Amino acid sequence: MPRGKSLLLTFIRSALAATSALAFVATAHAQEADQQAATNGDSTTLETLVVSGGSGGVITAEGYVGLSSATGAKVDTPFLETPQSISSVTEQQLKDRNPQSLLETLAYTPGSRVGAYGFDPRFDAFFVRGFDVTYTGVFRDNLRQPGAGSSLFKNEPYGLEGVSILRGPSSALYGASGAGGLYNLISKRPTEETLREVQIQYGSHERYQGQFDFSGPVNETDPVYYRLTGLLRDADTEQIGVPDDRAYIAPAFTWKPDEDTSLTILGEYSRTKTGGTAAYYYDTATGKVTDFFAGSPAFNDSVQTQGRVGYEFEHRFNDTFTFRQNARVSTLNIDADWAFAYAPNAADPTLIDRSAGTFDERLTAIVIDNQLESNFETGALDHTLLAGVDFTKLRWRSLDGRGVSPPLDTNDPDRGDPVAAIDFQTRVVQDQWQVGTYLQDQIRYDAWTLTVGGRYDWVSTDTDTTNLLTDTVTAVSQKDKEFSGRIGLTYETDFGLAPYISYSTAFAPNAGINLETNQPFKPTESTQEEIGFKYLLPNSNTLISAALFNIDQKNGLYYEVVSLSSGPANIQVQRGKLRSRGFELEATTSLDNGLSLTASYAYTDMKIIQGPAGTVGNYVSSVPRHMASIWADYTLPEDGPGAGLGFGAGARFMGSSYGNDENTLRNSARVLFDSAVHYDFAALDKKYDGLRLQVNATNLFDRREPVCTAGFCYRDQGRTVIGSLRYNW
């Protein structure tokens, strides 16, 4: 039996055993709760954590189990009534796993392909259901977080309350979004109760980090609340010449004069320093990824500064009408130098030729969403009608220059020879306006919920490309308009089972240009059919969900290595038509015996239906057909030996995949293991209440195999161990 299939079967057997154990434990827990309730004459429930804030998609959760959010319908809706696959990464999961990047945050969510570009701290690039959602699938507080070229906003997990995930095309409400779905990153918001936290961390590769989180009422009389979150990090990485330094501050304020009105202001500023590339040299002659760093340590700086400020306003006029306006202005600037080893030197076989480049990009985005929610009845039908108009203005400017770097010396690969200054040769300025209007009705009758929504978008894109060597300008204007829709039907049984069926579409204008053709990208369009169920086990904090889906997409954006006049480069290109079919299964639970668990499995069959010669009918690169994961955290009982001590462990399986669309490269299957141990010092003495020591390890066994995507090769990130000491009071 092939090694990949053997690994998968072993993992699935373990996952099925864990799921069976989960169902058994949950059922036993439910029976115990019922017996206890009968004895005490009341019901036993877990405390529900409700994250305060406006309409930005905040999650209502119990431990690991997300129960409702506004992500699936733009109004707070239980997951059981949402006719699409939806899940969440809750605040408790973030605390237990202590992720250091957005990719680590999403590593245990079904269908999320992280690590397709191996170790690369520059971008939060990932796939879901086989589709790249890096540019079109990341939202912040229910508002689009656009990107273009290398201008992608960096996301600090410590600044998040959680992530709410809606899989599949979702343009009926959100406009520009991808075929795979959207990931709504939920910012930390002010709390009505006082919160104080300070934390220090030390970890692998000389990683030093300090962070704090303070929140509560400004004073005892005014209805104003604040939150201030920040961190400072000085860190190296496993790759020479690639640091991971960051300074981050995020202030927030909420004014709530009465129960019907609230205004929340959210801000953020960060500065991040890392490398211009983290790739290894891929030897085309042997078809293997070497241990040679493709870049040059002397020419590998990347500094990104970014900021955002926005608000969420909500006013309820009466029991029928509620108005909301959410808005944000965000900007980023990235200045980077890079080198890339691509072929053996013709004169000296110990040398590898390297190209080099430098770029300076700036992106500014303004997003405003206006909503009017109406709740009313027509006979036996209950309606939640949502009407809205939103607006996005994006401006992207890119300065780019290409040149050469001294060759890589394989006898002294860490040597960084100086690189001559590279002048900018191209300037691109792109302005994009998008206006969309949408209408959605959630119609409830008895146990049935019919969700019907539609949206129309108008998009205008102007692109000016200047050749700075000849001072010639090429101007291109493009106008797009499209209707998007969703219809779904859900039935919720008395015992917590909710089957559903839905059809949805997506339309996404694309910022940036194709550097191979110097033309703007066409919009990406997609459709999906999905059927599934969600099951909230009665009297148990356990949610199980499953989905079957079929997605067709045309004109999607992907990175590929192409030959430009300056040499090979990894750039965005646009494909004809892709089709993704698959199945997903997810289970999460948090029980009051100290056990929390999340497990998932995804099967994805992703093929190229229309594309370049030699790729039609092939599998899309770096999309495994099988992925599975399981993470569990257990805290020992407070009244037993080992009180205060807890453990966490997880495993992530990725099946084999192809490393290019020609299907001539292959990525092997692999399982990566993570772990955690934590101790609450209050178990020693109550005077230490709030003091917690925690150690987290990712890729525990340091498995660093090659991974290729679109013919561009990296290695998996190696083992990282981080210890943290946190104090809350």
List the helices and strands and how they pair.
Blueprint: H1 3-40, E1 49-50, E2 60-62, E3 65-69, E4 77-78, E5 86-89, H2 91-97, H3 102-106, E6 112-113, E7 127-128, E8 131-132, E9 138-140, E10 143-144, E11 160-167, H4 171-174, E12 181-187, E13 195-203, E14 207-217, E15 224-234, E16 245-258, E17 261-274, E18 280-283, E19 288-293, E20 302-316, E21 321-344, E22 351-378, E23 381-409, E24 426-445, E25 448-467, E26 472-491, E27 497-508, E28 513-514, E29 519-520, E30 524-536, E31 542-554, E32 557-564, E33 567-574, E34 577-590, E35 595-610, E36 626-635, E37 645-654, E38 657-658, E39 666-667, E40 670-680, E41 691-698, E42 706-709, E43 712-715, E44 720-728
Parallel strand pairs: 9-12
Antiparallel strand pairs: 1-2, 2-3, 3-4, 5-11, 6-7, 7-8, 9-10, 11-12, 13-14, 13-44, 14-15, 15-16, 16-17, 17-20, 18-19, 20-21, 21-22, 22-23, 23-24, 24-25, 25-26, 26-27, 27-30, 28-29, 30-31, 31-34, 32-33, 34-35, 35-36, 36-37, 37-40, 38-39, 40-41, 41-44, 42-43
Give a written overview of the molecule.
With 729 residues, the chain is mainly β. The protein has 4 helices and 44 strands. The strands form 9 sheets. It has a 22-stranded antiparallel β-barrel. Strands 5-11-12-9-10 form a 5-stranded mixed β-sheet. The chain has a 4-stranded antiparallel β-sheet with strand order 1-2-3-4, with no helix packed on it.
